[in-house]
Amino acid sequence: MSVLTDLIYGGSNAVAALTEGAVNDAIAKYGAEKEIAFPDTAYFFPTIYAATGVKVKTLGDLPACVGVLKSLITNQEDLGQALNAGLATAVGAEILEGLKFAEPKDSYEDARVAGIGFVPDPIIRSLGVPLVTGDIPGVAVVLGKAENGEDAARVVKDYQSKGILTFLVGDVIEQCADGGVRMGLEFRVIPLGHDVTSVIHVVTVAIRAALIFGNVQPGDLAALLSYTKDRVPAFVNTFGAIDNVVVSAGAGAIALGFPVVVDIDLGENQVPGALESVTDHEKTVAKSLELRNIKIKSKELPIPVAFAAAFEGEIIRKADMKVEFWSAKNTTCELVLMKDAGEVEDHKITLIGPDIDSGETEYALATLIEVYGKKMQADFESVIERKIHSWYNYMEGVMHTGQRNQFRIRISNDAYEKGLRIRHFAEVLYHMIMDEFDTVVDKCQITMVTDKEQAAKILNEQAMPRYNQRDDRLASMTDESVDRFYTCILCQSFAPAHCCVVTPERLGLCGAVSWLDAKATYELNPNGPSQPIMKEGCLDERTGRYENVDKMVKEATHGAVESVTLYSILEDPMTSCGCFECICGIEPMSNGFIVVNREYAGMTPAGMTFGELASCTGGGVQTPGYMGHGRHFISSKKFIHAEGGIERIVWMPKELKDDVAPKLNKTAKELYGIDNFTDLIADETICTDCEALMEFLQEKNHPVLSMDPLL
Ligand code: SF4
Ligand code: ZN
């Protein structure tokens, strides 16, 4: 036998024996009836579920899985068969890791840097948009222990600066911590655990992506493997000596289509494109990206701190803060204005008032961005303006929250020490606008004002009037008032059969694409992911059925979806990719609907969690009665319009309810003359089961009680 297959089978057999023993021990200790589950997933033991369709719910379900696992290990001298044995190792790892959750809580990890272990479904859903936009260009799994810890830290920092989502397994976790790598989901570097088996937690991210976004049917192993290979841009790096368990886990990765780069010399045991040796750590990153064909758009900006999406979630605490711009204390505003050619001098940057080295810790800040472009439209001002939030957050050591005249910016001591000053903010704005909006912006000049009086002047004389003007335009913009809607197919890279239809009153289900955004996307890139749908051939106003919408959706989904309505959840509802902010689902007892947001982890009166509800739809399929959508759609007059509209909403998690209350109550007042409608809607502090929900609705005399039955 070759050294490689020998190693793989050695590892697989070892893991099989370990798994069998652990399963038997657990059953002896807790009994076969004991329930077992990973936290916050609707996909049971995801690898087993996806590969075989078996739903593991109790310890007693596991011995059969061990049988399947063993059958995958043929011990035959053939690379394909050996890779299957690698899948067996993945199944074994999943069971071993799953058994950890049968133990009393908090026993998962007690290492110096605890791993997060299992990644819950809602996090995977939240990764959908950054992955499709290329904001996260790839997924790295870094495993083992480097001979020189600094090398591992350098490699991981390099991935981080490129926006790659990196998972760490083993002692590299401590090596990275010692090397100053900042970790956490917000930094896109995630420590999984110290046992090799914890690598399964990133494998199941890929596997659940196939179930969530790809509509891969449980049990269809071939479809699963082709999804992970073609659509999940992941790869593996190992540091240090590798034993047979690591090799067989690596074989599992290869079977899923993820190339493995090791830092020891495998000589003739290398498998080109799948298993390669790179002994020089300076070349690890480049080789890994090349194997997965991941291209990084590099952004070299003239600023003294790093600039990458990986820093977007960075939080700057008061103790680490040098200066702050905050609306609660000083005048602030951010404004993009469209100007005539003669009024804009390209790349002109002006600072009016003191810079942040004047000794103060709090400043006013008015940012005025004036742009000219032959193809510029006033509608794009707000689209550009909203990007300021992300761009500022991409700067290492800068935190930005809010928008318009309500925001807060913090600059860290560290960034200040590196030389970050106000003009660098202007440089970021200039370069990013010219990079992302070059089709519509020809010239751009930026004025930053920290002088209190001058800032107030800009706020009152230019910003407020413009914000108000835009709000009036948005409020007057209805589906009836425009002549076109837009498609968005960005998510097709993960959900090949999905297409969103974006209208003024219905934003994309990810919450990130409004009608104006889709319009701007189209103008910026006429062959891009958003295409206009001329509003022609209305077949049914109640459900929002249009001949032209059907035609465009059918084209966009390559025939997978024949017909969608814009305003119904029961009749040909819009499809979901999987990355929706909220899900709306039927609550049969009350004839109403519940709406649940991704962040809510608890139970709902429908008897399902968000994750379980979410698993009812997705992957571009239509599931009458369940529909993914954006937060802002809830207060729209078009929300489940065909079924009677927002009057059907009976339950929402409290946080969501409070968040949408001002707008939802306004809509309810306008449509039905109801005051404080959200007082009639239950939440988890009132009930999480349907009987108590009915009692509450009766007590409040909720309008749903007098509406026609839904079914
Ligand atoms: Fe994906 Fe729809 Fe959002 Fe476009 S609008 S990014 S297709 S969820
Ligand atoms: Zn999506």
Please summarize what this structure is.
The chain is of the alpha/beta class. It has 21 helices and 23 strands.
How many strands, which pairing sense, and closed or not: the largest β-sheet?
Answer: 6 strands, parallel
Flag low-confidence runs. none
Distance between the termini: 63 Å
Shape: globular
Helix content: 25-40%
Structural class: alpha/beta
Return the average pLDDT rounded to an integer: 93
Strand order of the largest sheet: 3-2-1-4-5-6
How many helical stretches?
21
Beta-strand portion reads 15-25%
Backbone CA Rg: 27 Å
Secondary-structure topology with pairs:
Blueprint: H1 3-30, H2 46-52, H3 62-71, H4 79-100, H5 121-126, H6 128-133, E1 139-144, H7 149-161, E2 165-169, H8 172-178, E3 189-193, H9 200-212, H10 221-231, E4 234-239, H11 244-255, E5 260-262, E6 275-277, H12 284-291, E7 321-326, E8 332-338, E9 349-352, E10 362-363, E11 365-372, H13 380-394, E12 398-403, E13 406-412, H14 413-417, H15 422-436, E14 443-449, H16 452-476, E15 484-488, E16 500-502, H17 515-524, E17 532-534, E18 538-540, E19 545-546, H18 547-556, E20 582-587, E21 592-597, H19 610-614, E22 626-629, E23 649-651, H20 654-672, H21 690-700
Parallel strand pairs: 1-2, 1-4, 2-3, 4-5, 5-6, 7-10, 8-11, 9-14, 21-23
Antiparallel strand pairs: 7-13, 11-14, 12-13, 15-16, 15-17, 18-19, 20-21, 20-22
Helix pairs in contact: 1-3, 1-4, 1-11, 3-4, 4-11, 7-8, 13-15
The chain binds iron/sulfur cluster (SF4) and zinc ion.
